[in-house]
Amino acid sequence: MGIQLNSSKHTELANHAWSVADLLRGDYKQSDYGKVILPFTVLRRLECVLEPTREKVAELAEQYKDTDIDPDRFLRRASGHAFYNRSGLTLKKIAADPQNAAKNLAVYVGAYSDNARGVLDRFEFAQQIKRLDSAGLLYQVIGKFTDLDLRPETVPNHNMGYIFEELIRRFAEQSNETAGEHFTPREVIQLMVRLLVAPDGDALQLPGAVRTVLDPACGTGGMLSAMDDLITELNPDATVEVFGQELNPESWAICRSDLMIKGQDPENIAFGNSFSDDGHKRKSFDYMLANPPFGVEWKKVKDDVEAEHRGLGEAGRFAAGLPRINDGSLLFLQHMISKMKPVDVGGGGGSRLAIVFNGSPLFTGAAGSGESEIRRWILENDWLEGIVALPDQLFYNTGISTYFWILTNRKSPDHKGKVVLLDARDQWQKMRKSLGDKRKQLGADHIATVVKLYGEALAVAGDAEHPLRGKVKVFRNEDFGYQRITVERPLKLRFEITEESLAALEVSKPIQKLPQAPALADAFKSLMDTSWATKQEAWLALKDAVVQAGGTWPTGAPFNKALREVIGIRDPEGEVQLLKGQPEPDTELRDYENVPLGEDVEEYLAREVHPHVPDAWIDHSKTKIGYEIPFTRHFYVYKPPRPLAEIDAELKALEEEIQGLLEAVTE
């Protein structure tokens, strides 16, 4: 787990960095403070990490200065890290020479190795240097950061993440952005990685274990760090290679700098949109985890995603279906599934993945929709291992309920064909101080309870005496499937001429197009308030009236259809209308029913529908297969209303209390 830094200490360090805002006020908008504070914090962290070998590297760089040899490999070795700085300058030295601060800082930043300089470039650091220098603030800002102690022995890598996240949270608040798009609460990550890795504990402890991890929406890299920590905690000799992709430039830069400092390859963190510009094409991973932003539309990459869906089909990532444009969550899941390692004949290989969703992907979308088809694809391939419901108010940017989905293509034999639903909504403790929408947190005991319960889910669900049995349910994959049937009922009409039907005749376009339209209206008036039980009787009477008036009866299906619409009145006792010899369905009475997968729909119709409407039938050509996971419904517990006597007694007590207060006021 690494050295723990108490929260007051990392808040104190974040406050120190953010105090630069006092200098920026007036020259910078509040929403731009982070553009200065974040890159300077990264720069100071890099400087503190390199401090022990700084002079040694500068001397070595000087030796190679006028040679044709590329000293990169030697300088890395001398620095003891994957990055270095060739200059003898420090922020302290630069701050001590205010007149040349801009020039010296540019030289200092330019002396970093390419990978470190690339991180600072993402912050558009050169522009901020110019802007600060123009405002006469540069040397003062640098001076503030020279006092910030970010040495690894004071602030370990694991805890540096807290400081960056706190700064990003403040930056997001000032910018009116969503902090939750950048990072996930650490205790939520701890639960997630433990659920993901728990079944593999034994395999991970084997000598020489190598594991690859991907987060396709990695933010500042908190999830990747936690996976690295957990696997190396289980096996200190294991090799963990982390990969990620991030769209936000500040978060990407922080994640990349974190990897550099830890000795991981920063090139493994791609920049850009995972959907339109996959930074890890044709790669597969042992573990994947993500907390993609909730309910964010994917309109910007619509053309790329749809082109892959149509053009590549099964060879692409999105063959199963496309969700509605205003929520790309299920696109992330398909993207991750496409990177699962295949399972070999001996049962080895394969992958496990976890993703944080809100409630929408569980049930949004009717049968045949993109969302339903994606759920169907996942369940029919037996990839969904379990879903864990988390407490609400757990995230910084939303108070809504959230869920972990855990998927794998190497389920254990006892889990095959099954899905675990675990209700952990009551596993939380109240925070002393809220952070945004976050008012609850998971304690170490809660995490341990949920991990144990998930690992023993099948046994707990089968043990009627287990105290937590009500929190775990196990279903077959097909239990989430249903047949959406279209129930039709016959169109029944009577026919009559009324003021309303004559008015409708005058605005009926198919009838008004006819040259004899006025004559028809005049002829029909002679039958005012006449009613007929059948269409045949009505048509004979109307035809006779037109002929007697000296007119001609129009022919053709459009006229007959339009006339029926004008004079036909829906009537439960009316004549059943026929279409090609079969009862014509009444679109206004059409209904839909969801029938469990595997159940005979005709038996369902006879049992559930015919007792109420005996003339109904199923249009089998319209039947669709759908999948949904009604999590809340499965864990619903009925709470009877309080007895009326109890409510009455409470009301009387309140009345007496109010009366007493009023008397006290009037005395």
Automatic annotation (TrEMBL):
One of its GO terms (molecular function) is methyltransferase activity. It catalyses: a 2'-deoxyadenosine in DNA + S-adenosyl-L-methionine = an N(6)-methyl-2'-deoxyadenosine in DNA + S-adenosyl-L-homocysteine + H(+). The keyword Coiled coil does not apply. It holds the Pfam family N6_Mtase. One of its GO terms (biological process) is methylation. PROSITE patterns: N6_MTASE. Keywords: Methyltransferase, Restriction system, S-adenosyl-L-methionine, Transferase. Gene3D superfamilies: 1.20.1260.30, Vaccinia Virus protein VP39. Residues 158-457 form the DNA methylase adenine-specific domain. It comes from the Bacteria. Residues 13-145 form the N6 adenine-specific DNA methyltransferase N-terminal domain. Its EC number is 2.1.1.72. Belongs to the N(4)/N(6)-methyltransferase family. This is site-specific DNA-methyltransferase (adenine-specific). It comes from Streptomyces sodiiphilus.
